[in-house]
Amino acid sequence: MPVCLRQTGNDEMAVNNLTMLLRQVYEASTREIDSLIGELRGLREKLETDDDHLQSDIAEHAKLSQWVMQLTAIISDSVKELPTTPHLGR
């Protein structure tokens, strides 16, 4: 077999090997990127859920704080209206 035909066959084999290797790298990279995208989507959903819970907790805390302030004002006003008693033991 002439050298030139043997070289052409080797070149074709090298090109095919390189093409297969590049395809494997491409597919592995694509799978990794898809996996990362899936993880990021999951984290985003968790963040949104946590944000919803946090907003709800903050609103509940604000409402309870308002009730405590109103109750404190009512108690304070009620104590002011109590009749004064002479100090015992004087």
Task: Please describe the biggest sheet, giving its number of strands, its sense, and whether it closes into a barrel.
Answer: none
Q: In terms of per-residue confidence, which ranges show pLDDT below 50 for 5 or more consecutive residues? A: none
In total, how many beta strands?
Answer: 0
Oligomer: single chain
Number of helices: 1
Rounded to the nearest angstrom, the radius of gyration is 39 Å
Distance between the termini: 130 Å
Structural class: mainly alpha
Shape: rod-shaped
Q: In percent, how helical is the residue content?
A: over 70%
What is the succession of H and E elements?
A: H
What does this structure look like?
It is a single chain. This protein is mainly alpha-helical and 90 residues long. Helices cover 88% and strands 0% of the residues. The protein is built from 1 helix and no strands. The mean pLDDT is 89.
